[in-house]
Amino acid sequence: MLNYFPEEVLEHVFDFVTSHRDRNAVSLVCKSWYSVERFSREKVFIGNCYAVNPERVIARFPRVRSLTLKGKPHFADFNLVPPDWGGYVYPWIEAMAKHGINLEELRLKRMVVSDESLELLAKSFPNFKSLVLVSCEGFTTDGLAAIASNCRFLRELDLQENEVDDRKGQWLSCFPDSCTSLISLNFACLKGEVNAAALERLVARCPNLRSLRLNHAVPLDTLQKILTQAPQLNDLGTGSFVHDPDSETCGKLKNAMKKCKSIRSLSGFLDVNARCLPAVYPICTNLTSLNLSYAPGIYSNDLIKLICHCKKLERLWVCFFIKLIHYTYFFSGVPLSNQGLNWIMQILDTIGDKGLGAVASTCKELQELRVFPSDLYGVGNAGVTEEGLVAISAGCPKLNSILYFCQQMTNAALITVAKNCPNFIRFRLCTLNPTIPDAVTNLPLDEGFGAIVQSCKGLKRLSVSGLLTDQVFLYIGMYAEQLEMLSIAFAGDSDKGMLYVLNGCKKLKKLEIRDSPFGNVALLADVGKYETMRSLWMSSCEVTFGACKTLAEKMPRLNVEIINEGEEIEASPDDRHRVEKMYLYRTLVGPRRDAPDFVWTL
Amino acid sequence: MSTLSREENEMVMMSSEESSNDSELELGLGLSLGGGKAKFKPPSPAAATAAGGGSWDQYARILTAKDFRSGVSTKTSSSSSSSSSSVTKANINGSCGTKRTAESPSSPPGLGVTLFVISLILGESGTTLDKISQVVGWPPVRSYRMNSLANNAKSPVTKDFFSTVDKCKSKNIVVDKNNITKEKGVRKTSLFVKVNMDGIPIGRKVDLNAHSCYETLARALDDMFRPSAAVGPRRSNVDEQGVVAGTRQSLQLLDSSSDFVLTYEDKEGDWMLVGDVPWEMFLNSVRRLRIMRTAEANGLGGHDVKIRFELEFERAWKIVLLADVTK
C-alpha cells in the first residue's frame, strides 16, 4: 500500500528519520524506498573512510550536504599506529568539489588533514558552514586562515584535541569584518597566540555565538572582555585562568560571569590560579557539563568547593595529579647537606576518592563521568580507587557512561557498582597496572566485569582491564547482547576467550585487542562474522601470517592489513611468523591505494 | 648530631592510623593537623578543613629509605587513598641508610612539636612501575592529552624520583617518538647566576639556561671549580676528598656522600639544596649558587627548625611552617 504513496510524501516522511542507522534501515525496505531515501539523504556518516570511496558515496547520495568521516583505528590514539598509516581527507574533498557537491558540513575524526585540503575545502563550497575536527593532524594555522578567510557563512569551527602546527600567522584575524555568522568557535587545542583585539571584535560582531572555547594563550583579562560582549554563551572554554585574584580584572570577570546566565557547559582552565576560581561560582548552579580534565592546577579542595556548587551537573571530566612537596630542614638559616634531613615527599592531593565522594553527594543528575590520570607514569593516583567508583555509583543513579582510570579495583566494588547503576551504556575501566588483580582477594576481576555485563543490559561499549581470564569473556559473550565496541588489553588465557566474544556478541561492531593470547583458531573460527563488524584490531597477539593470509583469501570483502614497523618486508614471510599488528575491516572497494610501504594488505 | 637526633625523635608523633607502621619508619616526623601541641598554621586552610580537618592524615605519612628500597606495600587503616607502597629518598644526617627506631606514636608530654606526616603513595613496587611505564600506549590516554598535560604541568616529581639515570635523557618511555614533551619549549635567553665555592675567593658565573638538568649543571660546576693546583690556597682539611693536589677529582656535587653540597639562594632569600625540585621550578626561583662544605652545613644546633613546603604546581605561594622545639 505504501507503494502508492507519491515519492514526495515518502520524502517528507523520511525527513523525520534522522539517525543514519534508521536511514540505512529505511533504504533496505524496497527499491523505491531505497531510491527516495538516497536522494533525500543529506547527512552521511562513514565510520571507516576505507570501507567505501568518495565516488561511490557521491553516486549514491548526490544531495549530501554533511559528511562525517572516521579514519584511523582507535588504538592510533595511543601511538599503536605508525604515522603515515593513512586516513587522508584530501581525496574526499577533491571528489566532492569535482562533482559539485553542495557541502555544508564536514566532521572528521582521526584523519590526516593537510593545509591543501583545508584550502580546497574553503574555496570549493560556497555554502560551507561547519568544520569539526577531532583528533586530526597534518594541518597548520595556515589552513585555518584559509577557512576563516573564505568561508563566508561559517557557523562552526570546532577543533578538538588536534595536533596543529602553529605558523604564527594571525589566522583568527583572517575572519573578515563581514563574518557575523559564527555560532561555535573552539580553538582550545591551538598552542599559539591569537590577536586579542581581533578576537574581541569577532565575538562582538557574532551575536549568535553560543559556544566559545579559548586556548591557553588567551589571558584572563581578554576572557573578561569577551564575556561582557557575549553574555548569551551556552558553552565556555576558558583559556588561561591566572590572575591576581584581588585584582580589578577578577572582579570584573566575576560580574561578567553573573550576567552569563545561559552557560551550561564549562571547560578549559588550562593554566589556573585556583584562587581565581570563585569567579565562576555564579554560573556553576546551572552547569550541566564541566570539563576540568586539562586542569591539573586545581587541587582537590578547590575542586571540591567548585563541584559543590554544581548541583545540576550531568557530565564531569576530571583528572588527578601529584602535588609535590619539598621538604628541607634548615638550621640557622643554612640548609643541611644532603646528608641532612632532606626528604622528598609527595602528597597526593588528587581529586581522590574524597573528591569523588563530594561529586557523589552533590551531582545527583550525573550521567557521564571521566576520571583521567594526569601524569605519565600514572603514579600518584592511588587516590582514585574502587571506593571512589562505588561512591559515585551509589550517589549518582543516573550514571550511564564512565571512563575511569584507577590504581586498583576489586570484584566486590564492581558488583556493587553493577547493582547501583544498571543503566550503563559505556563502561570503560582502566587500571594503571594493566594486569592487576583484585586488590583485596588477589583474584582476577572476571566476576566484577561479569556483574557489569549481566546487570547493564543496554551496555554498548566496554573496556576491560586488570587481571582477567577467559572467564570474563564467557560472561561478556553470554550477557552483553547490545555490545558494539569492546577493548581488550593484556587479558585472557586462550583462544576460547576471543571465541566467546565472537560467538556471543551479536551486535559487535568494533573489537580491538592488544597483548592477549588469542591466536589463529579464534581468528579463523567464524570468518563471516567480520563482515558484520566494522573492524578488528589485534596487536601483540598470537595470530600468524599464515592465518591472516587464509582469512584474506576467504573473505574478499575484507581488507586484512598487516602493519610492519621496522621489519624488513620479505617477499614471502614465514607463515608461522607472528603478526605484530593486524587491522582488518570490511570494505566495498578492495585494498586501498594509499597504503604506505609498511602496510600490507593481504 | 646527637642533639639533632634527639630532637628529631622527640618530634615524632604519628597519627593513630600509622601506629602499626612505626617500626618500618626510620625516622618519624609527625605532623598531624589538629593534634598535638601544634604551634603552626596548617599549610593551607582549605586543606585542613576539606571534608573535615585532619584529612591530611589520610594520605600523609613520612617516607623512608626503607620504603624506597623495598617498595613495600603498606595499607593504612584509613578508608581512602593510601593503600600502596611508599617510596622516598631519605638521608639522615651523616648516616645514610642507618636505621633508627621510631618513637612511639604519642610524643612525651612537654615536647609539643608535631610536624608533618606525609606519605607517598605510589603504584606497585618500583620494578613493576618501570615495567608498566615501558609499555607503549599504556595507560591508554590519548597522546594529545598526555602531551598537553606534560607541557602545561610541571614535570612530575616521579621522573626525578625514579630515574637515577641522567635526567637529560628522555624519560618518556611510554610514549614513542611522536612524543613532544621533552625539549619542546623554546630555549630562553641566558640565565647567568653567580656561583661561589667555600674557600675560593673568586666567584664564577654560570648560565643555567645552557643546561637542561642538574647533572649537566653539576658537571659544569665541577669543571669550573674542581680543585687543581691552579686554584689558590685551600683548606687543608684531610677529609675533604675534593682537594688532592694535582688530581682532578670530581666534586660530586649531587652525591649525598660528597664533602661538598650545592645550594642555592631562592627568590625569598632562603638557601636551599639544589636538586630537590624539578628543574624548571629551580630555574624559576634560583638567584645564586653556593658550593658549601658539608661540614659547615651540618647540625649547627639551632633551635629553630624552619620547614619549607613548596608546592610544585603553585609557584605563587610557599608555606613556611615554624615549629618551635621546646626543650
UniProtKB/TrEMBL annotation, chain A:
Alphabetized UniProt keyword annotations: Auxin signaling pathway
Domain F-box, chain residue ranges per copy: 5-46
SMART domains cross-referenced by the UniProt entry: FBOX (SM00256), LRR_CC (SM00367)
Entry-linked Pfam families: F-box_5, LRR_6, Transp_inhibit
Record keyword Phosphoprotein present: no
Name under which the protein is recorded: F-box domain-containing protein
TrEMBL record, chain B:
InterPro entries in alphabetical order: AUX/IAA_dom, AUX_IAA, PB1-like
Pfam families: AUX_IAA
Family per record: Belongs to the Aux/IAA family.
Region (Disordered): 1-29, 34-53, 73-108
UniProt xrefs under Gene3D superfamilies: Phosphatidylinositol 3-kinase Catalytic Subunit, Chain A, domain 1 (3.10.20.90)
Origin organism lineage: Eukaryota, Viridiplantae, Streptophyta, Embryophyta, Tracheophyta
The PB1 domain, residue ranges: 190-296
Signal peptide: none
Quaternary structure and partners: Homodimers and heterodimers.
General function of this protein: Aux/IAA proteins are short-lived transcriptional factors that function as repressors of early auxin response genes at low auxin concentrations.
Keywords: Auxin signaling pathway, Nucleus, Repressor, Transcription, Transcription regulation
Subcellular location: Nucleus
Compositionally biased intervals (Low complexity): 73-89
Cross-referenced SUPFAM superfamilies: CAD & PB1 domains
Name of the protein in question: Auxin-responsive protein
